[in-house]
Model the fold of this input.
Amino acid sequence: MSTSNPVERTDIIIIGTGFSGLAMGAQLKRRGRESFVILERANDVGGTWRDNQYPGAACDQPSHMYSLSFRLNPDWSSAFSAQPEIWEYLRTTAREEHLMPHIRFNSEVLDASWDEDEQQWTVTTGAGTYVGRILVSASGLLSEPKLPDIEGLEAFTGDLFHSARWDHRTPLAGKRVGVIGTGASGIQIIPEVAKEVAHLTVFQRTPHWIVPRADKEYSASEKGMFRKDPAVMQQLRTQMFWENEERFAQRAAIPSLLAKATELALGHLQAQIPNNELRAKLTPKYEIGCKRILKSNDYYPALQRDNVDLVTAGIEQVDGNTIVMQDGSRHELDALVLATGFEATDPPIAKRIHGRSGRSLSERWSHGAEAYKTISVSGFPNLFVLGGPNTGIGHNSQVYMFEAQVEHVLGALDYISVNHIPALEVTPEAEDEFKESVDRRASTTVWLTGGCSTWYIDPRNGRLTTLWPDYSHTFQKEVAPFSPSAYQTLRTGADSTPVEGTR
Ligand code: NAP
Done:
């Protein structure tokens, strides 16, 4: 083993220490599996909750539900906890689940290739090489910032950063600041930044539907009760889960439910924005739920501050430190924040994962991402993708979805171990059947019928590839169980074409 290029052998290689990677590691550990590493490109755990440190960052799903089922936390300070608290929860999880010795920090995956002769994965990172039988990609649905395609943006002469790469060394106080984007991140950033800057220009392309945020702080006695009697906490979690589940019926585009949700959002807008002209700019022209329904009590008030302007003319180009609009107006800025979302439909990690015949996952997904039960991709033996195609959820807890996927992977690992299978790969038939079932359900949802443009839909094929088009509990029921009949084993040796069905 050379010190310049160390090679570490292990059984399972996990990429990423966000919610899904840590859940996977914790469950391996709890089942007595020790031979695994978790590769992390940063110097700390936490995924999106480490990266999104913008002012106002918080989760819009209740913390008692947006947390791991096997690590309930009596100490959540409020219904919708802020980023530092969720990040700390994940750091504590890594420590208390004894995952730290397994994590390799500052180890960005540069390439992961399936070795057909040895039937193993070789993963090259900036800090060393890892060889293992199983690869679990838990690199996140929303980990790569998406920069808008605006002429001259790269030459902007002020300070420029994305919401998920907040530059804390650049204070915004007293400056002329612009924020592009009014999605889930933008509406959390804008009220906070507005308080300290000299002037804030909000560049809105499309208004979002926004409903009130029913936040609540937990008292010391409530936290004490949760600690003393975890069953109470579990009951609260269950109640929150089923309340959220009801909201899927809305996304299924049932007209009476859409009308009820629209009424709630319009009432909120009417109550908070008395000015007709401003209210018109903020009224969406597509069905509610087509884009993520946002929760905020302070976004609309922030837009009415004397030092804030909402501009909607559409950005033409960036000229030096000035944003030039399509109507010719110009906005001079000292700093520009891009709250413009993430590369969700074409994740960069897919370019770095190579399966049989050296084909990259990105090539395999060139017409849009798809995976059997959201996890397994034909042509990619012993690869399991967490948080990949069709795992996103807007109406309930994303963590719940990851846990269902982890259960499936654990089933596959047991099957591989018990049957001494060198390489397991999903059949194209099982993959196609699952895809058709996803498409069938997606076709009637508000995401495909609601008349909006959304990153939930892959522009390359018009399919809903990021979100799960059904209830979360249905996801659990369908995705969590591992069924060997959907998989085939591969012949050992150089010719690793699938030959042996496992049905
Ligand atoms: P996003 O929802 O994709 O919103 C991006 C915003 O940038 C949109 O308003 C978009 O306008 C705008 N935009 C993009 N390119 C533009 C351009 N060239 N010119 C003008 N505007 C442009 O991104 P996000 O707000 O970061 O949220 C992404 C996801 O992160 C959420 O859906 C959610 O899943 C997650 N998130 C969750 C929380 C939470 O509380 N749990 C908080 C933050 C984020 P258009 O609408 O016109 O495209």
